[in-house]
Amino acid sequence: MKLKGLVFAAALGGALISSIGAQAQQPRTLKMQSSWPAGIAAQDHFRIFADRLDKISGGSLKVEVMSAGQIVPAFEVLDAASKKVIDGFHSIPYYWVNKNRAAVLFAGPPGGPFGMDHTDYLGWMWEGGGHEMWIELYQKELKLNLMPFSAHPTSPQAFGWFKRPIKNLADFKGMKCRQTGINAEVFQRMGMATVNMPGGEIIPAAQRGVIDCAEWVGGIEDLRLGLHQVYKYHYTPGLHENNTIGELTFNLEVWKSLSPVHQEQVRSALRDAFISWIARNQKENADALKEFREKHNVQVLRTPPEILVAYLKAWDDMAKEEAGRSPFFKKVLESQRQWAAIVVPAKRFMQPPYSFAANYYWPVQKPAAKAAAKGKK
Fold first, then answer.
1. In the prediction, which pLDDT does 60 show?
2. 88 - beta bridge partners?
3. For residue 6, what are the CA distances in angstroms to 1, 12, 16, 19?
4. For helices 305-325 and 181-189, what crossing angle results, to 10°?
5. pLDDT band at residue 15, thresholds of 50, 70 and 90?
6. What is the largest CA-CA distance in the chain?
7. In DSSP terms, which residues pair with 32 in a beta bridge?
8. How far apart are CA 157 and CA 173, in angstroms?
């Protein structure tokens, strides 16, 4: 009897261990929503991240990828995640400048800032104390229950779409344009009237004549949104979002509930998705510009330098004023300036301009030369 009892106990113990093991291996699914319409490229990045995380974790950690409005409106994901209505979100920090102006500094603010590109900025974020200050912004300054991470590089962005040509700063003064966040305020200083609206509302507003111009992203994003259907003058580049990087942010309790392994897998999936998405997006943008010109008869034009310089000056003035009002804004901006002061001049000296070899192999034809070449066909 004792032997039978021992055998039964061993069998029962083994069953319990197997049951516990099976429960531990049950996949966990996080419900996360973006601020984007379902069909745009930023949502693609969200899906790429979710796919990478699923594979890296061996299926043990999944993300249910939802687009804007599936649970809350596009601009309400920040508060929704903090309150745990959703487990996290995919968006961009400059949407939250109405809560704290320093939010724009964690989205790759205008001009880089200070001339930084993606690599420079992520260096500051990962190695220069930027991520720690971002956490401080959300958790201490805003009292939000969140853990943020840099996600998708939605840049460099185009200057925008216009119903008529713009040749100088005076040409767009008085025009009503879709702009968001602190960029809208900078453009207002330059004489533009601005309207804030989610991406899904831009085309209907343009079709009704509510706006005269619009800025979304550029390239493939603008093609998918359909801006070429209402405007035929497209200007690029812009310096308002030449280095913009979005965010993937978790509810803090949800983040802490993940195992150290799962947390590291999230970080790895994010960095993998960053590279995978930007590599694909570069070709998609090039194809989109070609389609704008050849299929949709869009005038794709270079933004007048006068406008770009005016934008940087207006931004610098605004940033200086804000730094004078907010010690936290000043601390972050100065940290970025110190990082850029080292890496930007060094990179400018060490790396050849992109245009140097590009112009050698792909010389830019002047309009007269293009017309002559077209006439020979």
1. 98
2. 32, 250
3. 9, 10, 15, 20
4. 110
5. very low
6. 103
7. 65, 88
8. 21
Average confidence (pLDDT) over 344-361: 94
* Look-up of token digits 């460099």: 156
CB-facing half-sphere around the CA of 165: CA atoms within 13 A: 6
Task: Determine the Cα–Cα distance for residues 221 and 282; give it in Å rounded to an integer.
Answer: 11
Contact criterion met (CB below 8 Å) for 218 and 14: no
pLDDT at 1 over 70: no
CA distance 376 to 333: 54
Categorize the per-residue pLDDT at 22 as very low, low, confident or very high, splitting at 50, 70 and 90: very low
Map residue 34 onto helix, strand or coil. Answer: strand
The pLDDT of residue 375 = 55
Is residue 174 left, alpha or beta, with left meaning phi > 0 and alpha meaning psi from -120 to 50? left
The answer to whether the bond into 156 is cis (omega within 30° of 0) is yes
SS3 annotation, 125-147: HHHCCHHHHHHHHHHHHCCCCEE
Whole-angstrom distance, CA of residue 255 vs CA of residue 263: 7
pLDDT greater than 60 at residue 369: no
Burial of 231 (0-12, 13-18, 19+ CB in 10 A): buried
Helix (H) or strand (E) holding 63: strand 61-66
Q: Which of 295, 157, 296, 152 is nearest to 218 (CA)?
A: 157
Q: What is the pLDDT of residues 283-331, one digit of tens each?
A: 999 999 999 999 999 999 999 999 999 999 999 999 999 999 999 999 9
Model pTM score: 0.86
- Rounded to 10 degrees, the C-alpha dihedral 336/183/287/122 comes to 20
Cα gap 312→186, rounded to integer Å:
9
Is residue 202 within 8 Å of 131, Cβ to Cβ? no
- The predicted pLDDT at position 39 comes to 84
Residue 46 tokens, joined: 């969200």
Tell me the C-alpha distance between 282 and 280, whole Å: 6
Neighbours of 25 (CB within 10 A): 10
